[in-house]
Amino acid sequence: MTWEISHRMKQSISKKSLMTIKIDVEQAFDKVRKEMQNCYELIQRLGRGVVYFGSSRLNDDHPHFLQAIEFARDVAKLLECTTWTGAGPGLMDAAIKGALEARMPVGGLKIAMEASEGISSNQHPYLPSEKYLTCRFISARKYGLANAVARNEPSDMTAVVAFPGGIGTLDEVFEILALIQLKRIGSELPVPFLLMNYDSFYSKLLQFMDECEKWGTVATGEVTSLLKVCNGNSEALEYLSDFYNLPQKLKEF
């Protein structure tokens, strides 16, 4: 009798646990869906444009920080579009500062905790609250940043720019490249992807990708078909100018 009661109690607890897990999962899906919708609405309001990825750890006196400011400023002027970042510190902040110098729109999809901060932070230090969202779910943030570069019309001028960065940057870089490869981004209207190889930062990564080609894990020419490696700002600006047929406008810089 004691065993039977114990067995029934375990079954009851197990069923309740499964119901709790199901409710938790459904609630999580609803929360992610809501965050994605909020990201979409912010992008619709501010406009699609150039999405920047980059290290959150580099200070404002680092040479790459200064290069990133100049580049984001010039791109904002050239394409006259919204600048999007993860609204974090480091090179993300440099891109924001550059766009603000150009007096062009800025939007951000911030994650509640940056790896470089190590603390939860829901607010941006100076952007108005209507210019950014703080996401709890990294999947919603990734969805939003991918959506921000999607071109719906030939007149839409967007791009993905990867400044030097670490694990988070590489995660975003390869996810976007995979989406481009699978035609989830740029299937009808291509989106340029610029890898900013400041001081040969990405050269060894590119060597690794060459090795992948030799091993047959990456198709020959696949990587170069997905992105443009730029060693400096002028090279990247010229590439964007050619991509969107803006040669006369480039002469202003």
From TrEMBL:
This is Cytokinin riboside 5'-monophosphate phosphoribohydrolase. It holds the Pfam family Lysine_decarbox. It comes from Vanilla planifolia (Vanilla).
